[in-house]
Amino acid sequence: MAGRRRKRKDLATLKAEIVKFIRGESSFTPEILSELVEQEKARNNQLRQRWQSLQQALEQSQETRRQLEQQYSKIVSMAEMYNAASLEAKKMIVSQMIERVDVGRGYHIELTFRQDFREFFEVLSESKKEIA
What is the tens place of the pLDDT at every residue in 32-65? Predict the structure, then answer.
């Protein structure tokens, strides 16, 4: 933000120099002044685009965080229900989390979780890796 203000101030200074040129008080040529103004405008536009890009990234991060918080709340509430539930209710809760169970030779078991749980577990494992 401070860099953006400084760039705006620099642009205003150059514009003031143009006024001095019109009055015949400037030592700069019109070409130099024009080039400097265009450079400052380009830098200002770059800063504006960078700021917009960062703003979008922030909004996306906040949306992802919100979605993860919802999934986490859902999983926590399911865990609390699971702990207090009967055996039949526990089966029903597990069936909500698991999309598919494959049993292979030698009782090799492979679980496929539903998409929303899969994404949550992936993000959870990534965050654990970042902490370690």
Answer: 878 877 888 888 889 899 999 999 999 999 998 8
Q: Are 33 and 14 in contact (CB under 8 A)?
A: yes
Give the pLDDT of residue 109.
Answer: 93
Tell me the Cα Rg of the chain. 30
| C-alpha triplet 38, 39, 43: angle, nearest 5° | 115
The DSSP symbol for 24 reads T
User: DSSP per residue over 86-126, as a string?
Assistant: -HHHHHHHHHHHEEEEEE-GGG-EEEEE-HHHHHHHHHHHH
Q: What's the rounded Cα separation, in Å, for the pair 98 and 121?
A: 13
Distance CA 4, CA 10 (A): 10
Predicted confidence at residue 115, as pLDDT, reads 77
Give residues with Cβ within 8 angstroms of 78, minimum separation 6.
Answer: 93, 96, 97
